[in-house]
Amino acid sequence: MRLTWLILALLVTGWAAQAGAQVPVRQPDQQLTGTITRADYQRYRAVPFSVPRGTVRLVVAFDYDQRAQKTVIDLGVEDQHGLRGSSGGNKADFTIGESDATPSYLPGRIEPGRWRLVLAVPNIRPGITARWTARIWYLRAAEAELAAPLVADRGSGWYRGDLHLHSAHSDGTCPSQSGKRVPCPVFKTLETAAERGLDFVAITDHNTTSAQAAIREAQPYFDRLLLIPGREITTFFGHFNIFGVSAPIDYRVTPNGPVSFNAIADRVHALGGLVSINHPALPSGEPCMGCGWAMPGADLARVDAIEVVNGGAALLPGGVEGPLSGRAFWLKALSAQRPVTAIGGSDNHDGAQTAPIAGSVGRPTTVVWADGLTQRAILAGLRAGRVFIDIGGMAESMLDLRVSNGRTTAEMGSILRAATSDQLIAHMTVQAMPGARLDLMAGDAVITSVAIDGARDVDLPIDRQDRPLIVRAVVRAPDGKVILMSNAVTISGANGSDRP
Ligand SMILES: [Zn+2]
Ligand SMILES: [Zn+2]
C-alpha cells in the first residue's frame, strides 16, 4: 500500500509539472485558501465559490503542502445540479467549458451562482496542519477560446497542417476491428496526422462541437501536434470552416432568418477565430447538397481564407486546377483587392486511410509561416497569408514568394504598391522533386517557366504589360501536375487606384 502511494505521489508530481500549462498566464480571478487537519481525516470538505454571470469556461488550479508528511487531498467539483467531476490526486488543475473539459470532468454550460470544490482527505497524520490553495479563473468568450499551449513551441518558422478533417463526430468512418465501417474515433485521425509529420490540424466536423472533448483529452498525448478547434459550418447555401472557436454557434442559416453568414463571421472574429470558405466551386444539388457557394448576402470582406485545394475536389475532373477547384473563386476575390489567403484541406473522412492519395490526411497540406506553434500564431499566420499549399504533402517541400519594386519587398498575402515604371522582381525559394518546374504566374497566365530540379532560389523579372497583376507561383511535377501552389502578392498602383 505504501509503495502504491509512493508511485502515485511520483506520478502526481510528474503530471503537475506539465499540467499547469492549461492555466492562464494572468492572475486568477479568485484565490481560496484553507487548512486541513486530522479532524478532516477520511472526510469530505465542500468549499463554496461563486461563479459570475458571463463565465463560459472555468479553470481551477489546486495545490497543498505537507506532502512529505503523506498528506493527500483529492479534488472534485460540483455545480448546482451535482458532481461535475473528480480527479482525485491525479491532476493539479482542470478546466470545464461548454464543449470540452479536462478528462475526469464533464463539459457543459457553466451556470452562474454557487459551485463547490469537493476536497477529500484520504490521509493526514495526527498533529499535521496542511494548507491548501485553489486558484480560480472565470473566462469569458474570447479569452476562453485561447487554449493555453500544450505543445512545445519551436519558435518562428514554417508549420505544416491539415485544416479540414472529419471524424466520428460527423460523417468520418473507418474500418472497425472486425472490418465493419464505423464512426471513426478522432484519435485515428490524429495518429495519422502525427505519422505524416504534420505540426497542426483542425478537426472540422459538421456543425457540432462534440469533438472538442476528445480533442481536449488527446492534446497532452499529441504534444508535438497542435490541435486547433475547428468546425465545418454546413448550410444549405455553402460550407465554411471556422478555426480557433470551440463555442457552440448556431449554423441554421436561412435567406431571411436571424442566422446569417455575416453574423456568424462576426461572432467568429469576435472570438479570435478565422472564417474560410470550403470547396466553393463544387456543384450543389442532389449529389452534394449545399456544397457549392451560393450564400445569401455573404460579405466576402468577412472571409479570411478560401479553400483553393480540397482533397475530395482534387480527385474530380480537372484536379487542383480544374473548374471544380477553388482557384477561380479565390482569384476573383483577389482581383477585388480583398486580402484572402488560399489554403488547402484534405476533407478527409477516414482517419485510418493511409494510401497517399488526395483526400487522405495531410493531402493537401497547408504550410504556414508563423511566429510559433501556438493557436494564436498559426491563426495569425493564416490571416497574414505567407502560406503555400503542398498538394502531395511532402515533408521537405518549400515555395516562398516575395515581390520587390526596388524600394519595398512584399510577402505572399500582401499588396505591393508600385508605380507603372517600377521594375518588379519576383524572388522565390523552392524545394520540390527532381525534374520539377516553377511557373511564375500573373493570375492564370504563365509569365515565365523555369526548371527547378530539386531546390533553388530564383529571381525573375515581372513584365507588367497587359496583365492582371496577381503574382503567384506554381510548381509542377515532371508530368505537368501541380504539386505546390503559392499565395499571391497583389500589385496595386502607387496611389492605390491602379486596380489589377
Ligand atoms: Zn463541405
Ligand atoms: Zn468537409
What does this structure look like?
The protein has 500 residues and is mainly beta. It folds into two domains: 138 residues, Jelly Rolls, CATH 2.60.120.380; 337 residues, Alpha-Beta Barrel (TIM Barrel). Helices cover 14% and strands 37% of the residues. The protein is built from seven helices and 29 strands. The relative contact order is 0.10.
Q: Give Rg in angstroms.
A: 26 Å
How many helices?
Answer: 7
Fraction of residues in helix:
10-25%
The chain-level structural class is mainly beta
For the sheet with most strands, the description reads: 15 strands, mixed
Strand proportion, as a percent range, falls in 35-45%
Number of strands: 29
Provide the CATH superfamily of the largest domain. Metal-dependent hydrolases
Distance between the termini: 76 Å
CATH architecture title of the largest domain: Alpha-Beta Barrel
Low-pLDDT residue intervals, each spanning 5 or more residues: 1-20, 495-500
Within the CATH hierarchy, at the fold level, what is the topology of the largest domain? TIM Barrel
Bound molecules: zinc ion
Query: What is the highest CATH level, the class of the largest domain?
Result: Alpha Beta
Q: How many individual domains?
A: 2
Mean pLDDT across all amino acids: 92
Overall outline: elongated
